[in-house]
Structure formats: structure tokens, C-alpha cells
């Protein structure tokens, strides 16, 4: 009798107000916001709409859970959150039969009771962290909950009467998509939330994190002033993450130290600048790659994608007297090793064109090294970079210092598309590169790059390695 069989909250269908709330709570995140406003618009035109099931996928700390709360606020609905991390018992979802001692309803029905309405926003957090054991598979039990065709009659073992979940707006969150079972993924609409760029992190810190931490520590802007340049320095040298959790911790760290200074000397006003930042946070913990100082032979700048954004890789090639062995070092994965082999074979096939001795593989051992040797690296996207470094070392032609590149290579020298273009380009821009070589098929990805960054760079869209070599090598 406690369940909200007929209680419904009225959706506030004012799109402008909803947009205002979403923008007030979150910076960026255009796609998820757009999807919520579309849902509102359709809801306004159609009286009954089956609750959509949205899956927000992105790295930790980018605001997936708080975005779901903002959705509830903008729609004027009740908000329920259950965490599925570590759940491995089917009865957690469907409830226990009443014959058992200590039987209770499943989390879905409990959530509906707590919401008190039939149409809340229901957040299923960390759906990729569920597991299964001898007590059943909770992800299979969720199939009925998350299928709009079936969830009008969701049956809980404890209640044994069908309950209608079709008005609920389910939102799930996950860090990675490949841990979610396929049938479950098929029922959800995936919205990817990428990691924030440096510029976005600085804006988030300025608008949200700094004011929040100043208030928590009893300070104001007069007492503690942190400049925009200082925030950028914190992002670059004290944090390495996709989200902003560590950034907020570092800001809190500064606020604590400032509070101590102010309590000792009540009249003091503290200005945190780039120069005195290490007084508050200690020596920088991270460094970011920068381009080479001069044009070099056999050193090419590649672009890498990591879970915490893009970075640059210097790929070095050295020739040693020997019998044609190809040495690969730098903790490279299988795919990356194969890229090096493919690049090497292609360079051998065009030796005459590059004016290289055709029997070089009988005279030299070739050593390819990717620095930061302790960090595992894998993926095909360094193919053209390794081939360019090889061509440079063998032909003794220098590589332009301000060129950075990414792309997979085939045995015929074709350049194939790769992922993570936005993050890679931003890393190249930060490092000081001026010319970026990317595969022609990745042209569509340039739309994601902020306009102010795009204007400062020259993009070369390559279909073949010959175009890459033409642009990257310095003609003597």
C-alpha cells in the first residue's frame, strides 16, 4: 500500500527554464543537455511518452551523477539514486520471495517507495561494475526494468503484483562500455561524456570550484585571490585526470593553507600566483610534453590518447651497424609493434624513391624507442610517426620540429583513421606544435575541436605516407 500507484508529479515543461538550470549547474556537456531538452519538447507535444533510458558513459569525475540530479531539477521530478557497484545478487533487483526470513523488496521497488511518485528520475549508478555469482545474474534481472516494452508490468518477487515503471525516466552511468552486457546495452541510448579540455577545467574551476571551496573554508575573493593563469598551472602540473575531482582537492589544499595564514595575521590578503604556487602545493607532480627545440634526424612527434586526455610522444630511431634486426623498446604493446613492422616494410619498398641504399637492412640494425619506457603503450595510431622517423634516420633528412602526427599505416603506405582526435590535437597545441597531420578520414572529427585552437593550427589531411613525408621532412 506504500507504493505510489497513482501519484504523479507534473513535469515543468518550460524549455528555457530547464536550459537555464542545466547551464547553471554544468559547464559544457552540450550533447546530454541537448538530449534532455529534446525529451522535454516531445513531452510537451505528446501527453504520454515512454520514459527514455539514457546511459551516460565517461571517465570518473566528469559530472555524470550530478548531471542526472540537474535533469531531475530541470524537469521538476523526484530523484532516486541506487548504486549497482558490486551488486551480484539477482534478489537485489527483483526482491526475495516472502517465504524467506528477512525477505524484502528489491532496490527498484524500494526506490519507487522512497520517491513517493510514479514518475521519478531513477539513476542506476555504475552499471558497468555489476557482477554475477551462484545467486543469479542481476544484469539479466535489469533487462525487464530497462525495456520500455516490458516495464509496464514489472514483477517484484516480494510484492507479486505487476508495477508500472513506464513513466520512470531511467538514467544509467558507466565508466566503460565494454563491461556492460550486450542485451542490456541494446536497451539504452548511449551518450558519451568526454573528459574536459584544459580550457573547460579552468572555466569550471573559476565558476564553480573556487567559489565553493572559498565558502567551505570561510574565505572570500578579497582574502584569497587565485588568478586564471594559476588555475591553468594547477591543471597542467598538479593534476592528470579527465574530470575535475583532483583539481577541486588542490584548490581546497590552497584554501586550507591560506586560512592558516589569515588566522595568524588577520589583516592579510593572499594572492596565489604562478610564481608562489609551489609554496602552497609543493613541487609540480606532472610535466606535459613539449615539442623539440630544433629540427632533428630520426625524432618524430606522435600523438597519443590516454584515459586522462591526449599527450605527445617523441619517437626516436637510431641506426647501428648490424645485420638488419629491428629492435623495439619502450614497453610497446603487440599492435604498436606490428605498426612498426608495417612502417619498416613500407620504407624498404620505397627505398629508391627516398634515395636510401636498397640494401640498408643488410648493413644496419634499426632501434625504435618510445621514451617514458616504464609506461605501457599500445594501439595502431603511431604507425605513420614511426615510419616518418625511420625515413628520416635512413635518408638523413631532418624532421620539422613543429609537426605532430597521428594515423595508422598499411603495407601499401595508406593512412587509416584513428580515434581520440580532439584530445590529441589539444595536446599538440599545448606542446607548441603548429602543423598537425591527421588521416583524411578523420576530417569530420575536426568539428569537435574548439574554434580558438583550430585557428592557430595548420591541418594536413593525409591519405598516403608520401604526403606525410613531403610535409614532415625538411628538404636540404
TrEMBL record:
InterPro entries: AAA+_ATPase, ATPase_AAA_core, Lon_bac/euk-typ, Lon_lid, Lon_proteolytic, Lon_Prtase, P-loop_NTPase, Peptidase_S16_AS. GO terms for molecular function: ATP binding; ATP hydrolysis activity; ATP-dependent peptidase activity; serine-type endopeptidase activity. One of its GO terms (biological process) is protein catabolic process. CDD domains: RecA-like_Lon. It is an enzyme of class 3 (hydrolase). GO terms for cellular component: cytoplasm. Residues 294-475 form the Lon proteolytic domain. Signal peptide: none annotated. The active site is at 381, 424. Pfam families: AAA, Lon_C, Lon_lid. It comes from the Bacteria. It is found in: Cytoplasm. The keyword ATP-binding applies. Its EC number is 3.4.21.53. It catalyses: Hydrolysis of proteins in presence of ATP. Its main location: cytoplasm. Keywords: ATP-binding, Cytoplasm, Hydrolase, Nucleotide-binding, Protease, Serine protease, Stress response. Belongs to the peptidase S16 family. NCBIfam families: lon. This is endopeptidase La. It comes from Desulfonispora thiosulfatigenes DSM 11270.
